[in-house]
Amino acid sequence: MLNFVICDDNLNILEKLSKMLENIFIKYNYEGEVTLASANVDEVLEHIYLNKTDVVILDINLKSNKTGLELAEAIREKNKDAYIIFTTAHLEFAMVAYKFKTFDYIAKPITQERLEETVKRLYNDIYSKPKKFLKIDNKNTIIDESEINFIKRDGMKLVFCTDNRNYEIYSSFNKVQDTLPSNFVRCHKSYIANINKVSNLEPVENKLIFSNNLSCDIGPKFKDNILEVMNNYGNLE
């Protein structure tokens, strides 16, 4: 599922773009959702800081305290991986927009065909990337690394908690952690978290919240490190 955020100072355009995207999702059976469509720059930033956001569609010439370019710069400070698509009637901004790792630039007025072309290319770009799989036992059980939310130690077992099911093996954290990419971080004596799957952090309860409402604990010994890592990955303000 890809989460889309739209920011434009024209409410009619916000509504139109949301409907156009929904039609594209249905037409191509894409897993996508418009999680926020807003003219409020501060609301957009807060939402992106606190929630998993995959695609941001920004009007460049916002009548706000920030231009679309300034908003993109603020987004990039916290989220280095989101796909940014700019929209504007002012063609002279096109070259400047690409400095923010822009995926595409769509001139207004936006047509269904033009937006559809961009969204199709975006989905192809994301899902054509090779998946990385982790072999977890001697029975050739493999898991897509991107589906793992966290790994929990349960006695002599390790439990891999994924989007669809849990996998149990007999192994040690140290042995498994050596096989994982850098986005898997020890956050507790009994948990290793996939930072890319974290949607929120509860500092009072010391918990990491994942996109499917699962959670795991943060240990006091690991809290400072997990906060630093999440800031570097763009998951926190």
Which key phrases capture this entry?
alpha/beta, OB fold (Dihydrolipoamide Acetyltransferase, E2P), single chain, 15 strands, 5-stranded antiparallel beta sheet, 2 domains, 5-stranded parallel beta sheet, Rossmann fold, 237 residues, 32% strand
Oligomer: single chain
CATH topology of the largest domain: Rossmann fold
The shape, in one word, is elongated
Q: What integer is the average pLDDT?
A: 87
Summed up, the helix count is 7
The low-pLDDT segments are none
Strand line-up across the major sheet: 2-1-3-4-5
SSE arrangement, N to C: EHEHEHEHEHEEEEEHEEEEEH
Largest sheet: 5 strands, parallel
End-to-end CA span: 23 Å
Radius of gyration: 20 Å
Amount of beta strand: 25-35%
Describe this structure in a few short sentences.
The chain has 237 residues and is α/β, with parallel strands linked by helices. It is built from seven helices and 15 strands. It is elongated, with a radius of gyration of 20 Å.
Describe this structure in words.
α2 (41-50) runs parallel beside α3. The protein is elongated. The strands form four sheets. Strands 2-1-3-4-5 form a five-stranded parallel β-sheet, with helices on both faces. It has a five-stranded antiparallel β-sheet with strand order 10-9-8-12-11. The protein has a three-stranded antiparallel β-sheet with strand order 13-14-15, with no helix packed on it. It is built from seven helices and 15 strands. It is 32% helix and 32% strand. β8 (148-154) and β9 (157-162) form a beta hairpin.
